[in-house]
Amino acid sequence: VQLQASGGGLVQAGGSLRLSCAASGRTFSSYDMGWFRQAPGKEREFVATISWSGGGIYYSRYTDSVKGRFTISRDNAKNTVYLQMNSLKPEDTAVYYCAARTGPVSRPYDCWGRGTLVTVSS
């Protein structure tokens, strides 16, 4: 599966962005999907994940309190996963990546797309 993230850009603090990740292939609906981010000089970190059915959604408890501000969703008919980001903070500035887990839940995410840059100005 090939993934392409889009929707990043420059936004002022307090603003919103919606990231999209379009996937190729007919098996998208069977994959768990996740969003990760990497800020300059930092390691990549987990942001959110959504199960193949959309019924299991989890947000990082450690990534600068994204829960309550970010919402992950998916549209399997469009082979797309989204990350709605509200109340953005300068600390959310990062390259955001989407990823697919093509194997069982015990396995890591193994398919990554190119990231999209989100810059939040203060």
How many helix segments? Answer: 0
The global form is globular
Gyration radius over CA: 13 Å
Span between termini: 37 Å
How many beta-strand elements?
11
Q: Mind summarizing the main beta sheet?
A: 7 strands, mixed
Order of helices and strands: EEEEEEEEEEE
What's the helical proportion of residues?
A: under 10%
pLDDT < 50 runs, ≥5 residues: none
Query: Could you tell me the mean pLDDT?
Result: 92
Structural class, please?
A: mainly beta
Strand content: over 45%
Walk me through what this model shows.
The structure is a single chain. With 122 residues, this protein is mostly beta strands. It has no helices and eleven strands. A hairpin with a 6-residue loop joins strand 4 (32-38) and strand 5. The model has no long low-confidence stretch (mean pLDDT 92).
Helix-strand layout with pairing:
Blueprint: E1 3-6, E2 9-12, E3 17-23, E4 32-38, E5 45-50, E6 57-59, E7 70-75, E8 80-85, E9 94-101, E10 111-112, E11 116-121
List its traits:
122 residues; mainly beta; four-stranded antiparallel β-sheet
How would you summarize this macromolecular structure in one to three sentences?
By secondary structure, the chain is an all-beta fold. The protein has strands at 3-6, 9-12, 17-23, 32-38, 45-50, 57-59, 70-75, 80-85, 94-101, 111-112, 116-121.
